[in-house]
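Schema walk-through. Below, the input block comes first and the output block second. Nothing else is stored per chain. Lengths vary across the set, and this one has 652 residues.
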Amino acid sequence: MIENSSENELFTVINNMPGGLCVFNFIDQYPYIEVTVWNKYMEKITGFSREEINRTGIFHVCSIKQEQDCINKAFTEMNKKETLIQIKDIADMNRLLKLKISSINTDKIKESYIVLASEIPENTDYGNEVLRIKESETILREVVDNTADLLAIFTPDFRIKYISPSHADVLGYPLEKLKSMRMGDLTYLGEENIIAKFGNDLIKSKETVKCQFKILCADHSFKYLETIGKPLYNNGLLEGYILSSRDVTARVKTEEDLVKSKKRFRTLFNNVNDAIYMYKLDEEGSPSKFVEVNDRACNRLEYTREEMMSMTISDVIPDLKDIISYIIETVESKGNSLYEACAKTKSGRIIPVEINSISLDLNNEKFILSISRDITERKEKERADEFERLRAEFFANISHELRTPVNVIFSALQLINSRINDTSLNAVLYKKYMPVMKQNCYRLVRLINNLIDVTKIDAGFMKLNLSNVDIVDLFESITLSVTQYIEYQGMSLLFDTNVEEKIITCDADKLERIVLNLISNAVKFSKSGDSIFVNLMDTEEKVIISVKDTGIGIAEENQSLIFDRFAQVDKSFARNREGSGIGLSLVKSMVEMHNGTIEVKSQLNKGSEFIITLPVNLVEEKSEIKDTRNYLISDNVEKIKIEFSDIYSSQG
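--- output ---
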């Protein structure tokens, strides 16, 4: 290598230098070298000859792997600074060296490297401090190399300067290969923009930058890394970047599964056939605004989700306002509460629903989950079944009602026919049985009239013949016309009013039938000695008519049924009082045709009171107000006999 006449003298000088000197160049593959100069000081401190170093490689003199990295660093920073390394000599003794590596490349000397080495005595203060630092560095390196997190240091151009062994375990690449790769080599397809932004943020920022991205593995799969990066500065100059990453693949996949599960649940939640409401209770125990509703609830009630979230369960199911405390109490004591109610849509449509409410404890908060099912079809079926039951019951009852008067008439005719040739008995038989036959004919007429009227009402053909009528005169005339009959039954009938005259628009014939029917019922369900009261009270805008008796009364559980068509409290064929069960239903329909209302108040064994409320209206008429008194006296006898035909009497 050195061609000079003073070669021997030069080698003598080199061998006697107070420090180590080595000149070498690389052959084949790093770290194998060809040493051309290896002075005696180098042999002394390493224990290896030049031939041994050429055979084993330069790393053979390093005591631990980290020192090999120090030599690598020395080559990286050659011509700049010194490097401290710890080596083992031939006797396995640790020695601390200070190295400086420089490159030389001249016309006479091909590209080689010169190493200047000097030993730092261990027992000096400086040596001990250097050893302590080296030991701390060794411990720190062990910690870094064995941490579960992925640690890496990149150069300013994003070449890998250091990478922890955990990268190899996570990504599947050999560690040596990873050291030769750049950041872009590990970028998973589709993540380029994310990685580029992360790199740009690192370049622009002097603070910590956080990012999550996919990184390419050796088997072409990917892992999710959550990475925190920070630029490294030394005296204001950028030396690189340090990145700390954590494999969050399991967490991300769990989160993705949760998102998918949530999406599936949301799809199921929104597409079930029942409306679902979730809400909390306020401090007073009342429902607060909804915290969750499904799409079915919004669609069924015709509200948007935003509108629904500003409402409470009582807003959409008004029936709950009166029973919410009972529902909450039932939910808390039994775990759930099942009840029927009516939901009200935005357009005002009423939907019958069945609601099952349960209590939920979520994150130490109590919620009520109410599942509402539309039971319109079920209710329609129940109504149809009930109608069918009433229809069957009605026809069974009608057959009885028709058969009874027919049998009476037929029996009377048979008796008369059997004595038809006995002239001495004819007058007596006729006088005795003609009223019976006539009364039963009235019963048939009344039944047929009621059936015809029911059919007219159902078909919408029944109309009111409205006129301005003095209702006080009308009701007083009706009462007087039946007084004699009622007194004959051993009862008293009283009429009272708080006004002498009150003109309203009504159908006089319909009101006559209404009052006669109510008085007939009062007689039917009273006994001798009882009293019947007909009262009329004017309240300016309304007229209130009351028909009250002191008869047997109606049980509370039956009061809601009496206005139903064909309904009868006593359904047996052996009942004491006749009737088809149509009368009060017709009364209610005709009252409602006048835009009025009817209600009943009754106590068992104390009597009943039917209260009719009619609005005060007038129509323009050319003719004078009808004289209802004369009209009723002349025409009402037959009507009374028809309406009272269900009441058996010996009166002719």
